[in-house]
Write a structure and sequence with these properties.
This is Triosephosphate isomerase. The chain is about 40% helix and about 15% strand. The chain has about 260 residues and is of the alpha/beta class. The protein has one domain: Alpha-Beta Barrel (TIM Barrel). Strands 1-2-3-4-5-6-7-8 form an eight-stranded parallel β-barrel, surrounded by five helices.
């Protein structure tokens, strides 16, 4: 089984910086077919660099056995008077085949709700894009023992309108709020077993993949990939340098991570 290993650059990198990263990644992976047999890389640049990254990736971009390119956000409507927004047809036109939906920062700072994540998921699958649904609980919810209920509420609410076939194209990324960002602390394996037991029971085999994200580094990636139910990693700052991302791909492709 191929491991999904991806990164969102968030609000980082100019077009020139994004091109340099993409050019280097393409050069490193172009003759690494054995790695791409074991790992599915994906990169989610800022919207300004989406077309440039797709162009630099060349024939590896979005091809079978290549590198998937994603967008960090898009509106659920195809067009209209939504100043400052981008539609899914627009990000698709720029090269995206994957769309990140429901990240904690979108929910916390921009008012994204379970309802709007559902609208965005439906729009993504309608246009043939892979929804990457982000879910995760706060420290308060975890300490109250409500993690499982909270995660299922977020996930069911976002995916309830999908058919079985559409569901099979969804990726779910579990990113506990207490473990992400500059102030996050790395999660212990024992803290992740219950969430992935719950998610795997309901969505394992029904979705494309279940990913973990939160303070992932090359040092803990192998251990995280060994958690039952985890099909890959969604990485932040550790993969913002090309060398860091390549190291994570090497870990995921290693024989001890079947």
């Amino acid at each position: 089984m191929r491991r999904w290993i991806g990164t969102s650059w968030k609000m980082n990198k100019t077009i020139g910086q994004a091109r340099a990263y993409a050019r280097g990644l393409r050069a490193e992976l172009s003759d690494r077919g054995e790695m791409l047999d074991r790992v599915q890389p994906f990169v989610i640049p800022p919207a300004t660099a989406l077309a440039a990254v797709t162009e630099e990736m060349g024939p590896l971009a979005n091809m079978a056995g290549g590198i998937r390119i994603g967008a960090q956000n898009a509106h659920w409507e195809d067009s209209g008077a939504w100043t400052g927004e981008l539609s899914i047809p627009q990000v698709k036109d720029a090269g995206a085949t994957l769309i990140e939906i429901g990240h904690f920062e979108r929910r916390e700072h921009f008012g994204e709700t379970v309802e709007t994540t559902s609208w965005k998921v439906q729009a993504a699958v309608r246009h043939g894009l892979t929804p990457l649904l982000c879910i995760g609980e706060s420290t308060q919810i975890r300490e109250a023992g409500k993690t499982a209920t909270f995660l299922l509420d977020q996930t069911r609410g976002a995916l309830s309108a999908l058919t079985v076939e559409q569901m099979s194209r969804v990726i779910i990324a579990y990113e506990p709020i207490w473990a992400i960002g500059a102030q996050g602390r790395p999660a212990k394996v024992g803290e992740l077993r219950e969430p992935f037991d719950v998610l795997a029971h309901e969505y394992g085999g029904r979705t494309e993949a279940l990913l973990y994200g939160g303070s992932v580094t090359p040092g803990n990636a192998s251990e995280l990939l060994g958690i039952p139910g985890v099909n890959g990693l969604f990485v932040g700052r550790s993969a913002w340098t090309l060398s860091g991302y390549l190291e994570l791909l090497e870990v995921a492709a290693a024989p001890e991570n079947p």
